[in-house]
Amino acid sequence: MLLKTVDLSVGYGDLRIVQNVSLEVKSGEVVSLLGPNGSGKSTLIKGILGLAKVFEGKVFINGEDVTGVPTYKLIRMGVGYTPQRLNIFPNLTVKENLEVSGSWLDRSKVKRRISELVEMFPELKPRLEYKAGLLSGGERQILALARALIAEPKVLLLDEPTASLSPMAADKIFKYMREVASNGVAIMLAEQNVAKALRSSDRSYILVSGRCVSEASSTSYLTDEQLRKIYLEFISIKPDSSL
Amino acid sequence: MLPLNLPQIFFNSIITGSIFMLAAIGLSLSYSLSRFPNFTHAEYITLGGYVGYLLSEQLGMPLYVAFIASFLGSSLLSLASYNVVFKPLQDRGSPLIYLMVASIGLGLVVRHTIQQIWGGSPLTIRAIWPRWILGHLTITGLYIYIITAAIVTAIALHLLLTRTTIGKCIRASADNVELALSSGMNVSSISRFVWLIGGGLAGLSGFFMVAIANAIPLLGWRLLIPAFAVTILGGIGSFYGVLIAAYIIGVAENFSVVGLAALGLPTDLKMLISFVIIVVVLLVKPEGISASIRGGVRV
Predict the structure, then answer these.
(1) Which pTM does this prediction carry?
(2) Staple partner for A170: which of A10, A18, A162, B198, CB 3.0–4.6 Å?
(3) Any CB–CB contact under 8 A between A83 and chain B?
């Protein structure tokens, strides 16, 4: 198991937003976190990363207890992350964005990774010397994904990577995500686009009001009438409309 | 009324602007990463001036040694204040007002300690600088020293911020601290480096002020207001903005002296120029001139 949380409670200040959530993601697996706005998806991810306060519970990466480990060390241990918003450095060029995201690595490795990522995401190639703030929404998300991949993470946490993207750009992000997972990376995806998330992931957890109310294979949410009715309606998503 | 010696006024403006630039860079850099206006910055300036006085005048050491010691003394005070006071407060999630009040309080402690050591009377470095007269323009060795320090600093910082990994990480952290952390950057170490450099440059500005005029415990406060004006006019967090704004305010201050003298008013009122610039910029163009600089390096 590459990523595992046990009874994790997370929040800000004195407020617990996520309560006792246990989940796991295996190598090469894409797991989606589904839930309505405010259900605690982003907070859970921030808790795993040490960007939000962990009240109780544990986080394990590759079997090692990393609860309370500073965020930058966790990233250096092999975790990649793309936040929902503000996920690039707009005043740096695209190339600089990639360079600083692997700042602790050998220069030669960063150079090699930039070449590999530019091959993987050809949209970035002609934009390398552009200020990242000038990129389109889709290009920004691709850059955010490339940034998270520069150090070849074993675990990738994606927080709403397709938010406010056109359907075509969103499809591209999901396609890239599957490619990354096929290389053995464990991916946890927080997503509002339920239909696409279910189609692109292996398993899903449903969060409601900070609690995990269901966990099943994504296929079963798509095909099992009862599951769809109970949970997808429960989180205010019409079970048959967009699937 | 005496005829205007424009070449000398412009030259003096370059000197003033160079000192303002050295004083303001640290203020702007530390604000970019720590997100609060650090009033203790005034005392980094003051300490630099007194350390320079101590070494060159009291201990009789060469000026270049005093120059280096001014940088080191203030950079260490800056680093210590970050590590001991500001970083712990930020780690506890203290609001902006706590940090500002702490910086004023710490500044008072440092200033009164300096006053206890050296007293409150003005102290002067009695170095004899070579002097050249070119037509209406008088240039001294000290002025050359100041301009060279400003040029070297500007070029070195430009190269640091655009060509080195640490410089790019400084810019990234200034853009978005949380994203920098979650990109594997040790933002605390980056901040320490920035406070070290910024404090050292403030110390140099203090040393030059003492070399030009004299050392007094309020030296830093006299330079802090123009430094804030430079930071705000340049656009908070803009490196190139600070470089340009420092010289604009240098020119404004030197011409204001001429204007005030012509009107028979005390030239000390030149301090008002910085206040007026702060108020006008905040009212008219709060983003400063950096918004007009295309492709500029934001820090």
Answers:
(1) 0.90
(2) A162
(3) yes
